[in-house]
Amino acid sequence: MNKMKLALLAFALSAVVVLVLPALTVAQGAPGEEHAGPPHHMPTVQEQMQEFTHRLQLTQEQQPKVKAILEDMHEQMKQLRESSSGSSEDTKAKMRDIHDKAHARIRELLTDEQKVKFDKMIEEHHKHMEGPGHGDAGAPPPPDHQ
Questions:
Q1: Considering the domain boundaries, does residue 62 fall inside one?
Q2: Which region holds residue 115: left if phi is over 0, alpha if psi is between -120 and 50, else beta?
Q3: Domain count, the chain
Q4: Rounded Cα gap, residues 58 and 66, in angstroms
Q5: Using one digit for the tens of pLDDT, what is the confidence trace for 17-43?
Q6: Which has the least CB within 10 A, 5, 114, 117, 128?
């Protein structure tokens, strides 16, 4: 009977270690990490196209043009991440520049009504990125497109 209790206790402790330890590791974050919370996920081109098409009601003519801009932006971001040897702030500034240029190119394709919606989307994105866990509270506001 004692062996059975010991085996059950050992199993329970093992289960606790297996289930709790990974959660504690994630909660603490990696050494040197600037922010808490989940890592920022950059949406894929497909995810962005779905959101843009839905929220901006992109036309069939606009969709391939916007997709090409997003693909170009993603490629530039990928190259920057792979070749980045500069400071973290320098890399963030370059990424913001890539984003801003892509957003300006997309904006040129939009109708006046879509531009209003797009500007609101960008503003929401900037607020989200400035929020807790993103370490960008001092980022400059988006350019005024009025």
A1: yes
A2: alpha
A3: 1
A4: 9
A5: 333 333 333 333 333 334 444 455 678
A6: 5
Neighbours of 57 (CB within 10 A): 12
The tokens for 140 are: 């400059």
How far, in Å, CA of 49 to CA of 45, rounded?
Answer: 6
Q: Per the domain annotation, does 68 fall within a domain?
A: yes
pLDDT in tens, 47-62: 999 999 999 999 999 9
Given a cut of 80, whether residue 106 has pLDDT beyond it is yes
Q: Could you tell me which of 90, 81, 92, 50 has the C-alpha nearest to residue 67? A: 50
Q: How many CB atoms lie within 10 A of CB 96?
A: 16
For the whole prediction, is pTM greater than 0.90?
no
Token representation of residue 130: 């400035």
CB 124 within 8 A of CB 116: no
Token output for 91: 């890399």
In angstroms, how far is the first alpha carbon of the chain from the final one?
79
Confidence category of residue 3, pLDDT binned at 50, 70, 90: low
Domain containing 96 equals 45-130
In a domain, 69, yes or no: yes
Kindly provide the residue ranges of all beta strands, DSSP E only, lying in the chain, ordered along the sequence: none
Query: What's the mean pLDDT in 67-93?
Result: 89
